[in-house]
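pasting for the record
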Amino acid sequence: MEFSATQLAAVLKGTIEGDANALVHDYAKIEEGKPGTLSFLSNPKYENYLYETEASIVLVNNDFQPTKPVKATLIRVPNAYLALATLLQLAEQHKPGKSGIDPTAHIAASASVGKNCYIGPFVYIGENAVIGDNTQIYSHCAINDNAKIGSNNILYNGVVVYHECVIGNNCIFHAGAIVGADGFGFAKNPDGSYFKMPQNGNVIVEDNVEIGANTCIDRGSMGPTIVHSGVKLDNQIQIGHNAEIGHNTVMAGCSAVAGSAKVGNDCTFAGFVGIAGHIQIANNTMAGAFTGITKSVKNPGQVYHGPTALPAMQNKKAFSVYRNLPDFRKEFYELQKEVAALKEQLKQKD
């Protein structure tokens, strides 16, 4: 399908600069733009591509001011990246969805499946499980006994939802995600062996959550592990038993939250962030890649970096010292020699 700049601007409530009749039928990165494609510019470091791109239409922020002539038609919007996401989501919604139940799927007689659902090949749905309307469950997923899944969800291939777990509405679970596996709880016997602590809780995932591929959310040992509404978890993330992730918090790949940690709302964590167990993280906390947070963060809006989770500016100062340690070491040894020489001179005078 083709769309004109006029049509796109109407959807996005944007303003047009250039040819209002310019047409696009595909998307492209700004550095790879071709005639008939739509692109966007939100990061200033890519501005130079704007003056070279062959893309027919480019989304830009309202406050952007070009420094050279631009061939493409511009659509000005408050947030170019968000505008692109809006268009991509609209395109995704117009793709025909799957429906129907594959004959190889196993659905327990006591289970309930809502209207307009898709149940793919070799899906297992256990006793008393509930699946809401318009939910799509792709091949080789397992929805175990007494699990409850709301409406308008997508579970891609190989997702496993353990018994008693609850998932809200409008969620996406990518391939291999595991919801409700046992938490890591063991008591040590006198002989040195380990006794497994039963994990009798469950997992509650609220609405509008997206879980990345191979991410694991462990069930609580007593009571639930909770992922609140709007949370976005990347691939290969570990959420420990009885942890709680606050509303609209986002976490990049390979991060981990240990058991019983409470993460606040609207937090942002880069990749490989580790959060220790039984601590609390205030709202709007941000942590850079490879940050280790071992103590509670009490004040909201803090930014942390480094393996010991120092405030960002303090971490930069500490790293600048660390980076110069070889020079400091050399100077230290030279000072030692000078001090030794001065001591020897003082001895000779005495």
